[in-house]
């Protein structure tokens, strides 16, 4: 069986010693970098170990397969997103839609160093794990919660639909800024303007209901 595919549901080892915890951090950082650069599918366990300067046995000691590595990364990314979205939701009631649009569209861009592999994991093409759907679901839920605070009359289903559009806009902007997506010098600002107009149009009818 491929070492990068599922080997059952064995869980990751939680190290008790400081040296073990440090090694896990190095392995996860290497995995996050590689997945951000190459995508989930193209990243291998051997490459993760090599990037971290570790022996492959050390990686398998803590993570039984690549799915376990990705699952740990998603859990960490979700915790960061939940904290940021909770803080944003507290502010959203005082923000007009166009300002909220700017705040939201910058969120994933500014958070990227802390959740660098999130986009890759949300785009993972695999039927062997629930990681992709969980990553997408939490990101959409967090954005939708902020939208509903800004526009109290917005129902949950529509909020999630709008949140999905905003999330994809955020990803496109990050790609433009990283030069991973086609862009001209002024294209990122045009995308921000488009997002402001979109959210103003969609949220305004539900602001005072």
From TrEMBL:
Pfam families: TetR_N. Residues 21-81 form the HTH tetR-type domain. Residues 44-63 bind DNA. InterPro entries: Homeodomain-like_sf, HTH-type_TetR-like_transc_reg, HTH_TetR. Keywords: DNA-binding. Gene3D superfamilies: Tetracycline Repressor, domain 2 (1.10.357.10). Transmembrane segments: none annotated. PANTHER family: HTH-TYPE TRANSCRIPTIONAL REGULATOR PKSA (PTHR30055:SF226), HTH-TYPE TRANSCRIPTIONAL REGULATOR RUTR (PTHR30055). This is TetR/AcrR family transcriptional regulator. It comes from Gluconobacter potus.
């Amino acid at each position: 069986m491929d070492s990068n595919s599922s080997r059952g549901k064995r869980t990751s080892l939680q190290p008790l010693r400081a040296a073990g915890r440090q090694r896990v951090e190095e392995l996860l950082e290497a995995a996050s970098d590689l997945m951000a650069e190459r995508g989930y599918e193209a990243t291998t366990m051997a490459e993760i170990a090599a990037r971290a300067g570790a022996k492959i046995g050390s990686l398998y000691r803590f993570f039984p397969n690549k799915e376990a590595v990705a699952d740990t990364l998603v859990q960490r990314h979700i915790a960061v997103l939940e904290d940021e979205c909770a803080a944003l939701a507290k502010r959203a009631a005082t923000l007009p839609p166009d300002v909220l649009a700017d705040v939201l569209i910058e969120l994933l861009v500014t958070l990227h160093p802390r959740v660098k592999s999130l986009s890759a994991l949300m785009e993972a093409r695999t039927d062997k794990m629930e990681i992709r759907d969980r990553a997408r679901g939490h990101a959409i839920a967090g954005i939708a919660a902020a939208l509903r605070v800004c526009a109290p009359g917005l129902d949950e289903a529509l909020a999630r639909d709008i949140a999905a559009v905003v999330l994809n806009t955020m990803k496109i902007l990050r790609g433009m800024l990283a030069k991973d997506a086609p862009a001209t010098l002024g294209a990122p600002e045009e995308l921000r303007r488009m997002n402001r107009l979109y959210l103003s149009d969609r949220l305004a009818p539900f602001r005072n209901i």
